[in-house]
Design goal:
With 376 residues, the chain is mainly beta. The protein has one domain: TolB, C-terminal domain (Neuraminidase), CATH 2.120.10. Helix content is 1%, strand content 37%. It contains one helix and 24 strands. The strands form six sheets. A five-stranded antiparallel β-sheet has the order 1-2-24-23-22, with no helix packed on it. A hairpin with a 6-residue loop joins strand 8 and strand 9. The radius of gyration is 20 Å and the shape is globular. The N and C termini lie far apart (42 Å).
Length: 376
């Protein structure tokens, strides 16, 4: 039914060589297995130059380091709803992690039966990672997506720390509630912005607007599973379209990104969505779109020159559907060239403190791979 939950094939070779098509600075890359045996790994966050936290969708958090067995699950996580696309999803470290050891993680959370209600939604929490990295302390839920709805799909769940210290969180439309993405009285199909204590910044665009939830930053999104700060210091995201129409956007305060009124995709199995529009006044056009859908997951601007100057500043996006890593060259915020790397490998992307790219494969026996220049 949903093209955006495809899984990649298991990598069968230790190293894969892919020549680059760049005429400016030809290079090649290979992959090195850092860890394997991960259960649908979703995100990674470095806690020092060698160790990483890796979230597993099954609801566990691990410490991973090259040459060292994967850790036992980190203790102290809250109760997590696991099903379909739901589970433990993104994890990031605070910009001051080296001194405060604070992390942020988002996950799917079921309603509390003791207080009534049903369904599930995306939640964002903070915690302190213990000095020995074995447990979470001082866990605090900062945000709960409202309303809860019984669905196994479209949780969104990417976290970005903004330059001003606030947190962006991406939220899916819950699939069958897609019309909610155009209304302000719910968090479905939205990007929200909060402070690190869970409070709402007073300069959020809908603060004080009657009937609007104050956490909302932008609307009209489908299922955003890639988010990062660009070289311009602004938020960049990508989101899953339906059958076609995956998008890259640069969400700005108060703006409407169109879903489901405008889209370059169509219903699964064919047929237009709504009136079949691709543009409408008052709604933003994507900076880039993929049709057919590639099912993007994870995105990262490469800031280092470890792969040559031509790649520095490029945007990297994983494809769940076609199992590759896309390298995108941009000019004036537009994609001018796309190259497919690591075919049958690429998934969720990060750049490490060593300036290298790291890739997770969304498998029951998932791997963490380091992408190396061929001459590394």
């Amino acid at each position: 039914m949903r093209k955006d939950c495809c899984k990649a094939a298991v990598i069968s070779l230790l190293c894969i060589i892919i020549p680059s098509a760049s005429a400016q600075d030809a290079t090649a890359v290979r992959t090195e297995i850092i860890a394997q045996g991960l259960d649908h790994p979703w995100a990674l966050a470095f806690i020092d130059r060698k160790r990483m936290l890796v979230s597993e969708r099954a609801g566990t958090l691990r410490v991973v380091q090259a040459g060292v067995p994967i850790s036992a699950p980190v203790a102290g996580l809250p109760k997590i709803y696991v099903g379909g696309q739901g589970g433990l999803l993104d994890v990031i470290t605070d910009r001051q992690f080296s001194s405060n050891r604070i992390i942020y993680f988002c996950y799917s959370k079921a309603a509390n039966a003791k207080t009534g209600g049903n369904g599930n939604s995306t939640a964002l929490a903070s915690a302190r990672l213990s000095d020995d990295a074995t447990q979470l302390e001082q866990v605090k839920v900062l945000f709960n997506q409202q309303p809860k709805f019984d669905s196994r799909a479209h949780f969104g769940c990417r976290i970005v720390e903004n330059t001003d210290g606030t947190l962006f969180l991406t939220l899916g439309d819950r699939f069958s509630r897609m019309q909610d993405a155009q209304t302000l009285n719910n968090h479905h199909g939205k990007i929200v912005r909060i402070r690190k204590d869970g409070s709402v910044p007073t300069d959020n665009p809908f603060v004080g607007k009657p009937g609007a939830l104050a956490e909302i930053w932008s609307i009209g999104h489908r299922n955003v599973q890639g988010a990062t700060l660009g070289p311009d210091g602004k938020l960049w995201t990508h989101e899953h379209g339906p059958q076609g129409g995956d998008e890259i956007n640069r969400p700005q305060a108060g703006k409407n990104y169109g879903w489901p009124v405008i889209t370059y995709g169509e219903n699964y199995g064919g047929g237009k969505i709504g009136a079949g529009l691709t543009a409408k006044a008052g709604m933003e056009q994507p900076l880039h779109q993929w049709t057919p859908s590639i099912a993007p997951s994870g995105m990262r601007f490469l800031r280092s020159d470890r792969y040559g100057k031509a790649w520095q500043g490029n945007l990297f996006v994983g494809s769940l559907k076609f199992h590759y890593l896309a390298r995108l060259e941009l000019k004036d915020s537009k994609v001018v060239h796309e190259e497919r790397l690591l075919q049958n490998v690429g998934q969720r992307i990060r750049e490490g403190p060593d300036g290298l790219l790291y890739v997770l494969t969304d498998e029951a026996n998932g791997q963490l791979l380091r992408v190396l220049p061929a001459k590394y």
